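Async update (no meeting this week)

Hi team, since we skipped the sync, here's where things stand on the single-chain job. The sequence we agreed to prioritize is pasted below, unchanged from the tracker. I ran it this morning and attached the output directly underneath so nobody has to dig for it. Comments welcome in thread, and please keep replies under the output.
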Amino acid sequence: MTSLVDRNTVESLVREIVLKRRGTCPGKDAAAAGSQLVVNASARHMHLSQADLETLFGPGHQLKPMRSLYQPGNFAAEETVVLVGPRGRLISNLRILGPLRSASQIELAFTDALTLGIKNLPVRLSGDIEGTPGAFVMGPHGVVELKQGVIRAAIHVHMSPADAEFHGVRHRDVMRLKVGDGTGVTFNQVHVRVNPASRLEVHMDTDEANACALHLAKQVELIKD
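Output:
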């Protein structure tokens, strides 16, 4: 004897399966469902310490936020500087990002390093600047000579503890990122950075974004190794 299932039941089951795959199953809280993944290209920029800020812009100077960034509390400032590389090559209007940090750091793409004449610029996580190249930085009030701190930022993903649990990863794990449907482009060694204040977001540099045509991508996916 054949058992019939009504159309409404079938549609309900199909809807639940689809929503589960998308991480938005009804009845689950946001932590269990996971957050929407955002991938952004991070253009060249500089982070400043308080001491270097005052050297470049004057005593008591405070950064003036121009626009908020995706990560809470982070912003692009109105202030820019001139970066001087080997043999006097320049990058003008290098944007400062806030808030201030304990040590100054400059993040460039590979093509930026070529423009400046910096060879073998190391790929590092933000804050890991030991043994990296330095540079001269010019502001409206003064000049700072960085002994180290110029890096290519490693591609990484910011996430909250709830998102880390959803994806089955921990702080400092690595994942893969697929950009685009079909064959797409897959990035390996995407470093996981977990913080309670973070929103789910991948940061890549402008060279990486151009390589995968990020501005045209309609699908992005984090993959656990």
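Quick observations from my side:
The two ends are 47 Å apart (CA to CA).
Residues 7-21 form the longest helix (15 residues).
Reply here if anything looks off.
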